[in-house]
Amino acid sequence: MPRRRPSSDRLLGDERGSAALEFIVGGVILLVPIVYLIVTLGIIQSHALGVEAASRHVARAVASAESVQDADARAAAVLDSLVREYEIDADTLAVDVSCVGRPTECPGAGETVRVTVAASVPLPLVPPVLGLDEATRVGVESSSVQKVSRYWSDG
User: Fold this and answer.
1) What are the strands of the beta sheet with 112-121, ordered from one edge?
2) In the prediction, which pLDDT does 65 show?
3) b or e along 19-45 (b: 16 or more beta carbons within 10 Å of the residue's beta carbon)?
4) Residue 16 has pLDDT above 80, yes or no
């Protein structure tokens, strides 16, 4: 077995300067995905809160309206406000207003109105190459119900 020379022992034990480099490389490799995940989850949560607020407020606006035209105007105003506030892409927003129970005029006196709002959230930093920006969207949806007053009149 060959004997080590004292100079080679000194070189094998010398690790000065490598800890900083390891920390920087390891930190970047771990930090970048964590920051991306935090930003992405924040955007998705913001859109989820916006969609939930939209369904709740549109249901209230429709239920408290005095006519179908008033309900449509109130719903449009509420949606415009929430799209601006939560920075939701209006092109991806889908709103469905329906009545629970009897298939009569919707909305009508004494009916229960169900409002479902859905949107898709684009992930940050995804390029519009080969349709990746469309394939990586996350869907969020919310549904709310509200009872219309039995004294509601259309007209």
Assistant:
1) 94-100, 112-121, 138-147
2) 85
3) eeeeeeeeeeeeeeeeeeeeebeebee
4) no
Q: Are 145 and 100 in contact (CB under 8 A)?
A: yes
For 74-115, what is each residue's pLDDT tens digit? 999 999 999 999 999 999 999 998 888 766 677 777 888 999
Other CB atoms within a 10 A radius of the CB of residue 6 amount to 6
Residue 52: what pLDDT? 96
Residue 124 CB neighbour total at 10 angstroms? 11
What is the greatest pairwise CA distance in the chain? 103
- DSSP reduced 3-state for 127: coil
* Residue environment code for 72-90, b if the CB has 16+ CB neighbours within 10 A, otherwise e: eebbeebbeebbeebebee
For residue 73, give the 3-state DSSP assignment: helix
Report how far residue 103's alpha carbon sits from residue 95's, in angstroms, rounded to the nearest whole number. 19
Residue 84, classed as helix, strand or coil, is helix
